[in-house]
Fold this sequence. Notes:
The chain is built from 14 helices and 25 strands. By secondary structure, it is α+β, with helices and mostly antiparallel strands.
Amino acid sequence: MAKQAVGTLERHVEKGVLALALICLIYVIATHFLTSPNRLALSRGGESATPAVIDKLVADEADRVRNRIRESQPPPTQVPDLVPDFEDAIGMELAQLPRAVAFQPTVPTVGGKVNLPGSIELVEVVKFPKPVAMVGRSTRDIVVRPINLHTGYRDTEVSDLSRDRFPLNWVRISSVFDWAEQTRLQREAYEPGYEESLLVGIEVQRRARRPDGSWLDDDWQDLTPYVEAVLPPVGPIRITASARGPQTDLDDLDAIEDMRRLLRGKFTSLNIMRPLPARYYDGDTWDHPSNQVMIQDTEILFPKEPIDPNNLYDRYPEETPGVKEEKADKADKPEDLDPNENCREFIAERMAEFERAFAQEDLSEQNAAHNRILAIIQRSTFYDGACVDLAKRRKAEIDQKQVDWKDRIERWQRENRKRQIQVKPPLPRPRPTGTGELGPMVAGEKSPLQEVWVHDARLDSVVGGQTYQYRMRAKLFNLYAGQPKPLKNKEDATKWFIHSEWSEPSDPVYIQPETQFFVRTGSEKRGDVSVDLYKWYKGVWVGGTFKVKVGDQIGGEARTQGPDEENPTPLVDFATGVTVVDVDFHRPIRSRDKASKTGVKYVKAGETVALVLMDEAGTVFERLASIDREDPHSRTMRESLFKPKPKPKVELPQAPTSETTTGRPGESKRDRPQPPRPRPKP
Length: 682
């Protein structure tokens, strides 16, 4: 085969292509790796810079210009003195001119007093009245990891959070915050436009009664309430000195404004003042808030709409007992109220207490009298219908009187604001001598008294067998945070929040132990005593009976009926930590029978079994069998014991009828249905 001739260009063309590609590669490496391809020459210094450097320089220059604008002061205005020219023109001095009216007429100051720069002091925060504590024990679905509150927060955001179910003790601590009084204080102390009160939180402290029954101030401990949404953490506010005075860091100013915007959120405000309880499963229920609370919620959520009492916003879930169906029958009645005997006297005394507190404007005592009457309604099964109806009427009177009084105070405040603008003397504060007329509810105004509460319901927080007291204080947002120039004390501008004083302690609340016992009977011959024990187990009360002697600990492990269908008789630990020190089988006792106008009568003297006991703290105490048997709480515990659901009845085969025994016409005996034959016993 003949060979084809190849030219010089064709033989060396690939070498030229490779050389061209090598040149391009070297150019790319030189421009993109060794130097920057896009560099611009700067007018300052003749240097060149990349786009990233230019962006940073532009941002720095913008920050510098913004700082200069914020720190700059307007140039002083030179006002020319024209008085000499005017006097020369008229040929006399100003003092010689006749005055038809007085110079410098009084001009009313709108918006409060005028504060000079550097003279403002942080306002005093209104103190909470004495809080009221409510105790319960129930099984609830707890949010272990709460979410952060944010702008636009809604209550529905916590509905899908991960929850764990626990039986626990809980305490709700409630009080009221005087919003109108706080606004008045800020209007007097601050500049116009700083009347806004932003509640950041409610701080709570708790102390336990000592074994000797005393209370010490050193025992107060900070308490972390249960919430499902919390405020985000804040950092320090940095203020530096400069030639033009103290200056706040720009990032901190942005953080302060973000916090202010967050606290203005409607649901954020409600979650701080009135947080929702943990989701209910079983046990004691949390009292549903009254209509007055829902009116306050509706005012905050819909400030521009008039309040319709029949269409209030209700954000609080209804709690219905599950396993324990008749919760009212198992509740303890008021200790000082004998059912159906002194009911009217009891209610009359509470109304007298309310009237005294109303005349003194003591809201805490008013609520205490109200709640004691409300207890009769909530535990209606203890009393007859007439007693409950009377309690309902008196409760309605208290509610109406408080609502009317709040309306009078609101009207007085509105009228005085108008008179202040019109330069008229203020009206004196009304006294609670009457209710006055109740006008229509006005849209856009917040109730002057806002109910607030917190929940001591974190896992293992409330311990059974302890007696607690609680106190509260309000925490408000510092409206002058990051603004040192108007303040007298420049360090106050570094404070995010300001606090009120602590309220006075609540009344002591006793937490029933998770394990309780009652002395039943004793046998001197055997030397032992029977004790009934009750244990709070998985949301229900289970029980057992133990026999103890001197030196034994009351309780221990035993099987009993429980709520688990898979394990109906679980092994439950009934340990109490209480040891029997001594037993007296012949303790003399003479019980009180009844009281009359002539005095107190007692039953005949008798004997009972007495146990001398010592708990884990070393406290020695005594329990008597006759007193434990008659204790109303012992009866309540027996009625509260868990009872398993009855098994469904099994339908037995019916007895044969006459038709089955005789058969139909034409039917043989072999074709008839035969009754089942009894099986022989093994």
